[in-house]
């Protein structure tokens, strides 16, 4: 099972990825999470990626392909994996197909989370994340149990804590309306053409991700069992 979770920023890749991971017992590999970890650790890759990510641009193909190449060699990827946020360019797509072909494997499904651009700003600007686990919350759609609001209805930062660990949540530096414009331009310009590459192979399954999370999950589940 080699799955690609596909969709624009805020589509729900990070929301549904961990649930597929639990269901199928294969790891979710998020290049965004891996790059954020590299930035936090200030590795060479992290230093190169930091400013690009904050502005909403794409990190170079060499870097992300290298990260994925190393990661999928690890033992827990033996029976498959879920790619979140990769591939994002045709160059990355070709590199992925080549890596897989060397192992006699190929992409089994591309789950496209379809959402109109207009709803994404609210999702992105209301998101809070637990950095260590990658769990994401939303001030309106998925608030943490601990959330308190001030007299203007704004969430109190100190009350934004992870449900499982009680650790503080944070907002991503690229979750601004300005960076989102750039991220969406990259998505439509560089990433959407990837679908044309996979469509003839019959592996693309489209899900309506512009509905409540539970409804999206039901459709994701159905797409997993659809041939
Ligand atoms: P990455 O981390 O991959 O960010 P992204 O693609 O922009 O996607 P997001 O994480 O914003 O969206 P998501 O679909 O995971 O949404 P989520 O489920 O959290 O990449 C970040 C950056 O890293 C890139 O910009 C780039 O610089 C670099 N990078 C990464 N990979 C790269 C690559 N391959 N090549 C080059 N550069 C790369 O949901 C969002 C919010 O909405 C949450 O708050 C959630 O609670 C809420 N929500 C989810 N579903 C619903 C729903 N149905 N209804 C209401 N709210 C919902
Ligand atoms: Zn994500």
TrEMBL record:
Q: Where is the Adenylate kinase active site lid domain?
A: 127-174
Question: GO: which molecular function terms?
Answer: AMP kinase activity; ATP binding
Q: Does the keyword Transferase apply?
A: yes
Q: Which UniProt keywords apply?
A: Kinase, Nucleotide-binding, Transferase
Q: Which family does it belong to?
A: Belongs to the adenylate kinase family.
The identity of this protein, by name, is Adenylate kinase active site lid domain-containing protein
Q: What is the species of this protein?
A: Chaetoceros tenuissimus
Which residues of the complete protein appear here?
Answer: 84 to 310 of 310
């Amino acid at each position: 099972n080699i799955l690609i979770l596909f969709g624009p920023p805020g589509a729900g890749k990070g929301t549904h990825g961990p649930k597929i991971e639990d269901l199928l017992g294969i790891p979710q590999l998020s290049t965004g999470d891996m790059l954020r970890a590299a930035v936090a650790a200030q590795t060479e890759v992290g230093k190169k990626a930091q400013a690009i990510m904050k502005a909403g641009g794409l990190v170079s193909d060499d870097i992300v392909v290298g990260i994925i190449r190393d990661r999928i060699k690890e033992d827990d990827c033996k029976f498959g994996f879920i790619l979140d946020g990769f591939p994002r360019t045709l160059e990355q797509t070709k590199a992925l197909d080549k890596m897989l072909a060397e192992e006699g494997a190929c992409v089994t499904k591309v789950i496209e989370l379809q959402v109109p651009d207009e709803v994404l700003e609210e999702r992105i600007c209301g998101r809070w994340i637990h950095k260590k686990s990658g769990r994401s919350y939303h001030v309106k759609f998925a608030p943490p149990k601990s959330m308190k609001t001030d007299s203007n209805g704004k969430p109190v930062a100190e009350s934004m804590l992870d449900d499982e660990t009680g650790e503080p949540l944070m907002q991503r530096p690229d979750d601004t309306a300005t960076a989102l414009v750039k991220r969406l331009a990259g998505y439509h310009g560089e990433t959407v053409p990837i679908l044309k590459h996979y469509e003839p192979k019959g592996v693309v399954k489209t899900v309506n991700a512009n509905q409540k999370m539970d409804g999206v999950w039901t459709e994701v589940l159905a797409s997993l069992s659809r041939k």
